[in-house]
Amino acid sequence: MLNELKTVNEKFIALIKENSGVLAAWYFGSNTHGLYDKLSDEYSDIDIVILADEASYCDIDKSLTEMLKSVCDEVILCWGEDFNGEAMKNYDCLLSLNGKIFQYDIFLLNNGFIDDFMCKLHYAELTEEDIIFSRGDTAQRLIGSAMKADTWQGDISRIVDTYWLHIQMSVKYFLRKDFFKLNGVLRILMDAHTSLLLTKYDKITWGGTANKLHFIPAEKQTHLMRYGCISDFEAMKENLLWSLEQFEKDVEEIAGNDHYKKLGKLIKEYWINNLYQY
Q: What is the pLDDT of residue 31?
């Protein structure tokens, strides 16, 4: 992680500690869950959650950019999420210091809405080690009080049907060389294959799909890496043939079923027969 980012973080924390309206702060994202050393490099960002007193929430929100300006050379941009509201606000900030540009993400929670779903997401599985500071036991009281997430839940029958339906659909888009329709189909195929793998291999109860996929076997990760849409249709066809064959194997391993095998065989033959006519 960049020294400049660490410097900004330390100075920003010192500032918010001085603000009586800030009740607590803690780290979020890959800074937690024991992943700091595993995922940290010079491109890493920092995710920090600030819990504001309800009466101070709006004032703190308005002053965030000015506080950041005082601890770095330039605030290049602060990008607010579309869902920002009276319960929580999330800003992805690009800052610069000593000629280095880096990302610093701030989540501002309103203590008056601490039971709001979006707020709860940001203290789910909070631990003592994540807490930066707390006035009294404000942050400690949140530990264990948020909802507990589950590992990935997938309807395998629905996943398999979705996959093979869209394999069949891809034929016409390959033949028409319709890049944009094919792009949409490939994204659905990748999502379906991802869901299949996570149904068996997901072991973590936090984070989005991208986080969870880091924890499936490395070989299985490669099964998802050829679904991208590229301008070379022949190369894309070869990539998808390889990917659908891996999907067949993964289905057999995870949910061996004669119906799934028959369905895959039927549509795979249709796909090959239509796209490999010489």
A: 57
SS (H, E, C) the chain: CCHHHHHHHHHHHHHHHHCCCEEEEEEEHHHCCCCHHHHCCCCCCEEEEEEECHHHHHHHHHHHHHHHHCCCCEEEEEEECCCCCCCEEEEEEEEEECCEEEEEEEEEEEHHHCCCHHHHHCCCCCCHHHEEEECCCCCHHHCCCCCCCCCCCCCHHHHHHHHHHHHHHHHHHHHHCCHHHHHHHHHHHHHHHHHHHHHHHCCCCCCCHHHHHCCCCHHHHHCCCCCCCCCCHHHHHHHHHHHHHHHHHHHHHHHCCHHHHHHHHHHHHHHHHHHCCC
**CATH placement of domain 3-142:** 3.30.460
Q: How many CB atoms lie within 10 A of CB 151?
A: 13
Indicate the domain borders of the chain: 3-142, 156-275
pLDDT, position 36:
47
Find where tokens 């009466």 sit.
55
pLDDT of residue 148: 67
Mean pLDDT, contiguous 10-residue spans, the chain (278 residues): 91 96 90 54 86 97 96 96 96 96 96 93 88 95 77 90 98 97 97 95 80 89 94 96 97 93 96 86
- Looking at residue 152, what is its pLDDT? 83
Give the fold, CATH level 3, of 156-275: Four Helix Bundle (Hemerythrin (Met), subunit A) (1.20.120)
